[in-house]
Specification:
The chain is mainly α and 367 residues long. It is built from 15 helices and 2 strands. The mean pLDDT is 88.
Length: 367
């Protein structure tokens, strides 16, 4: 079905913007609601789901090489149960991509293009991603490799340029109300870290699979580091007021000034963020298309690329009618719960079942 191959390093380059793309915009304000000035601790606790997702995906790949989670679900828990679970994953990733694109479009329209119909922003992103997915995994891998420095380096540069404006005293008092506020603040971002389970769709196409675990863990660590830095940045810059902004990182970019010449870099932030989200939506879109084709036992995924793009458009346009509902969905009323179940608990359960079945099979062979 897929003849293309990528390296484990390209996989890491694909996964970094897949997680960070939307997280750097949403996570600071969401975690700040619960953790207050301890919001920088929340990504640390949240990252455990990322490490668990990578571990589960790698171990399951060792047991079921050359198969994705859609395929080995049928082997692990039986054909009918596996088909039901596979269908649930298809629905989950369709909702995840559709709602993610809606959040992206809300941000673009609300912050930069107030007179542009949101349907235009949605359709243009989905069309570009559909064309990319149609060309295959190698194209997405190369684009991830190409755009990684364009996405990562300006973000780090913006942090450096803002150093004179920062007030590190805003971090105090640390854990004034104990550890629980930062743990509560970690519940929403753990959903983003859980998206590392997407590597279960990519591992069968990696040329140097022995390095897959290393680069998977490294990418989780870099996402963790980035979110901690971004949370510290907005905390040091905006203090307790950061929760009053829907997009605190965008607000922070407006403080950048170089010799009173280079100022108000929010347009540059938007451009970088659009690149990151393009990679994110392409990766999720590809996994959705590949998983759907495998669930339907198709010989080629290309015929369903554009129909699934239309489905994504419908979900993104009508699934979340307003920005308020999309914010609620991202925080406590939807996605964090779904992500915890589908991207952490179910894969770990599948791994336990696979290990038990493998052990029984060995005993039968030895006996």
């Amino acid at each position: 079905m897929e003849k293309g191959k990528i390296s484990s390093l390209q996989m890491a380059f694909m996964m970094y913007p897949t997680i960070v793309g939307t997280a750097i915009i949403n996570v600071p304000s969401i975690t700040g609601l619960f953790a207050k000035n301890d919001l920088w601790l929340s990504p640390i606790w949240a990252s455990f789901t990322g490490f668990l997702a990578v571990y589960a995906a790698i171990q399951l790949h060792k047991i079921y090489p050359n198969q994705t989670i859609i395929q080995y679900s049928e082997v692990a828990i039986g054909r009918i149960s596996g088909k039901i679970l596979g269908f649930m994953y298809v629905i989950f990733y369709a909702l995840m991509n559709g709602h993610g694109i809606r959040i992206y479009a809300e941000f673009i329209v609300g912050a930069f293009l107030p007179k542009t119909p949101i349907s235009v922003v949605l359709a243009s992103m989905i069309l570009i991603c559909a064309i990319t997915v149609y060309t295959g995994i190698e194209t997405i891998g190369r684009l991830g490799q190409l755009f990684f420095p364009v996405f990562f380096l300006p973000l780090m540069l913006a942090i450096l340029l803002l150093l004179p404006e920062l007030h590190p005293q805003n971090i105090f008092p640390i854990m004034e109300n104990g550890i629980m506020p930062s743990i509560k603040g970690a519940f929403a971002p753990q959903a983003w870290f859980g998206e590392f389970l997407l590597i279960s769709f990519l591992l069968p196409f990696i040329t140097d699979i022995e390095k897959g675990r290393k680069w998977g863990i490294i990418s989780v660590f870099f996402v963790l580091l980035t979110l901690v830095l971004v949370n510290l940045l907005v905390l040091f810059l905006l203090g307790a007021n950061l929760t009053s902004y829907s997009y605190p990182l965008l607000k922070a970019s407006r403080y950048v000034s170089i010799a009173d010449f280079l100022e108000n870099l929010e347009s540059a932030v938007m451009a970088i963020w659009v690149l990151g989200n393009f990679v994110k939506f392409s990766v999720v879109y590809y996994c959705l298309v590949l998983g759907t084709a495998q669930w339907l036992n198709l010989s080629d995924y290309k015929p369903i690329v554009f129909p699934l793009g239309l489905w994504t458009m419908i979900i993104s346009f009508w699934g979340l009618p307003s920005q308020m509902e999309s914010t609620e969905y991202s925080t406590l009323k939807g996605f964090p719960y779904l992500s915890l179940v589908f991207q952490t608990l179910i894969p770990l359960s599948l791994l336990i079942i696979a290990v038990i079945r493998k052990g029984k099979k060995k005993k039968e062979q030895n006996g």
